[in-house]
Structure formats: structure tokens, C-alpha cells
Design goal:
Blueprint (H helix, E strand, L loop, with lengths): L1 H4 L3 H15 L1 H19 L1 H5 L4 H27 L3 H24 L11 H4 L11 H21 L9 H6 L1 H7 L16 E2 L3 H6 L4 E4 L4 E4 L8 H12 L5 H14 L3 H22 L1 H10 L2 H18 L2 H17 L12 H10 L1
Parallel strand pairs: 1-3
Antiparallel strand pairs: 2-3
Length: 357
């Protein structure tokens, strides 16, 4: 019986390592974030030169191994009336999953335990967004920017109509252009994200993109509404250069888009910031939310509503609700984000602090 219990060892080791890193953020800053992770990224850049997602192949292989091997073992157990083949197969997969979880932390997950790397840009953020009327003013500023950019972005044959791969390829240059506004980005080069593939499947799971730490790939669902694509791509690239927390990745994406010379990136960034801002405003003052919608130009309002409809149609399925709960569980338990999926929306507070500076 004892050999079977050994399958929990990787899980206990991973949990101990996670707890230790959370208790020692200074070590994570000095060793993991400053030395180990950059070393890994520098020596794995060849994967990002491969233009198809290697993560897809690894994930498919793991899924096939897990399912096919388990089914075969169960069949042997039924045929021989011996439970041991099935039990061994289950233990192997539990062990493999634990090793994967431990490797996840060793390659990237410890980044969640960093002391706030954006602390200089986000210090002293108040829960009130700087006053009762500050959030509406900020939303109005974003609407003004979006109204000004929309005619350039929504014109016939504009660069918004380019292939998604072209937008993804411009992400590294957008990060380079933002170094003056975000000197903390110096030291690592943001990769060009790759198309995730199987877009309809991931849209049904409410997944806009992901960072796959095992291959150091930033992956983007290219079927998301066009106005979201540059922001999502910059968000995943921010994960790739070591910013694990969702609110900080959103902050970096918003700033990179804002500093870009490309109007499509600027429009995507301001529309994403506006989305989070209006969501916070609607929870506090529904009347002010509807007033803000009235200040949008027809094009901006159409883009805003079309995006809402795109995701609302997909949020009502049992599969989408299950995927949302899984994501929230991961953010709370594996990533240590106490607010779970709500941590994405905390970017409004970070943006307001950054703009005050």
C-alpha cells in the first residue's frame, strides 16, 4: 500500500514549495525573478521561433496518454479481475500531475509570490479610486480617447482589418516603445504571441488567451473581438516576461497599448480600460453607467456592445460556467489571488494610480 501512497509526494512537495515562496518573497525577487526565470527564457527562445503552438502538441499528447492508458488499464483489470493494473495507472497519473504542478512552480508559478514588482507605479492605491467622483471622470476620459481614435480604427480597410498574426507580430515592438513609461520592463524582451488554435473551443470556455509556462509561449485566441486582440496579446506577453498577477498583466497591457504609436493598439487598450472601469461603475452607480454609454460615439458604442454580446452568448452554457469556476479555483488556490477572477478588474485601481503619477 505504501508505494501507492507515494503518488502524493510530488503534490506535497509542490505545496511545500509554494508555501515557502509565499513566505519568502524577497528570495523570489532576488533569485527566481531576477536570475532563474530570465535564464530560462533566454535559453528557450527557440520555441517562440516555431510559429505553431508547441503547447498544443504537448497538451494533446498528455491528454491521450492519460485517457488511453487509463482506459487500457481498467480494461485489463476487468479482464483479469485484478484491481492492481487500474490502481497503478491511476497512481501514475496522479504522480504525473503532481510532478507537472511542481514543475509549474519551478518554471514560473513562484512569480505569484513576488513582492509587487509594479509597486512603484501602484503604491498607495485607495479602494475609493481617489474619491467618489474620480471613477466617472476617469471613464469619461477614456470615452473621449476612444471617440477620438474610433474613426481611424474603424475606417474601411483600416489596419484593424489586418490578419491577427500581423497584430501579434507587432507586440514586441509595442513593448519596446513602452520602455520609457515602464522602465521595469527593461531586461526581458516580450515575445510575439502565437495563435492558440481551436478558437471556437476556447471561446466556448471563455478563454481569450493563456501563458503556457512549460514551453514559455504566450498564446492568444484570435477569434476574440478585433478590438480586444492587441490588449489580450500584450496581457499574455506581460505574463511571459514574468508578471504573473492578472491585475498587473492588465496594467502592463494597458500601458503598452497607450504608449504605442499604432492607433489599433491604443484603441484596444483604452477600450479594455473602459470596459473594466464601466464594470466597476455599474456595480456602484448604474445610472452613471448608462449616462456614460450616452457619451460614446456610435462606433465606440457599437464596438462596446458587440463585444458584450459576443461573450454574453457564450457565458450561458454549463461548459462556460464550469470553465469559469475552474479558472477562479486556479487563481485562488494555485496562484494565490484571494480575489480569484475578480483580480482582473483590479486593474482600474492600478491604472488610476499610474495615471496620477
Amino acid at each position: 500500500m505504501i508505494p501507492y501512497l507515494l503518488c502524493v509526494v510530488p503534490w506535497l512537495t509542490a505545496a511545500a514549495f509554494a508555501a515557502w515562496t509565499r513566505a519568502n518573497p524577497a528570495w523570489v525577487d532576488a533569485i527566481f525573478a531576477a536570475r532563474w526565470y530570465p535564464f530560462l527564457v533566454r535559453n528557450m527562445t527557440f520555441i517562440n521561433r516555431i510559429r505553431f503552438p508547441v503547447a498544443t502538441i504537448l497538451t494533446a499528447f498528455a491528454a491521450i496518454w492519460c485517457a488511453a492508458g487509463l482506459i487500457a488499464a481498467v480494461a485489463r483489470s476487468f479482464a483479469s479481475r485484478d484491481y492492481r493494473p487500474a490502481l497503478k495507472a491511476v497512481c501514475r497519473r496522479i504522480t504525473a500531475a503532481g510532478c507537472a504542478y511542481l514543475l509549474l512552480y519551478a518554471l514560473w508559478g513562484a512569480q505569484y509570490s513576488r513582492s509587487r514588482p509594479m509597486s512603484g507605479a501602484t503604491a498607495a492605491v485607495s479602494a475609493s479610486y481617489g474619491g467618489e467622483d474620480a471613477l466617472p471622470r476617469q471613464c469619461m476620459a477614456w470615452i473621449t480617447q476612444a471617440n477620438r481614435l474610433a474613426p481611424r480604427v474603424r475606417a474601411p480597410n483600416s489596419i484593424l482589418s489586418q490578419e491577427p498574426e500581423d497584430i501579434l507580430a507587432r507586440v514586441p515592438s509595442a513593448f519596446e516603445n513602452a520602455r520609457g513609461a515602464l522602465p521595469r520592463l527593461i531586461g526581458m524582451t516580450a515575445p510575439a504571441p502565437k495563435p492558440l488554435g481551436f478558437d471556437s473551443v476556447f471561446s466556448s470556455l471563455l478563454i481569450e488567451g493563456m501563458y503556457f509556462p512549460f514551453t514559455f509561449e504566450a498564446l492568444v485566441n484570435t477569434s476574440v473581438p478585433a478590438i480586444d486582440l492587441p490588449f489580450v496579446a500584450c496581457h499574455e506577453a506581460a505574463h511571459a516576461i514574468g508578471y504573473a498577477r492578472e491585475d498587473e498583466a492588465n496594467l502592463i497591457a494597458a500601458i503598452v497599448c497607450a504608449e504605442s504609436a499604432d492607433p489599433v493598439f491604443r484603441y484596444s487598450g483604452v477600450m479594455s480600460s473602459l470596459r473594466y472601469g464601466l464594470s466597476a461603475l455599474a456595480a456602484r452607480d448604474p445610472g452613471a453607467y448608462w449616462t456614460m454609454l450616452g457619451h460614446m460615439s456610435d462606433g465606440v458604442r457599437a464596438d462596446f456592445i458587440n463585444r458584450q454580446q459576443y461573450w454574453r452568448e457564450r457565458q450561458q452554457t454549463p461548459l462556460a460556467r464550469f470553465a469559469a469556476r475552474v479558472n477562479d479555483f486556479f487563481l485562488v488556490n494555485a496562484a494565490g489571488a484571494e480575489d480569484g477572477a475578480r483580480s482582473y478588474g483590479k486593474v482600474v485601481e492600478l491604472l488610476r494610480e499610474w495615471e496620477r503619477e
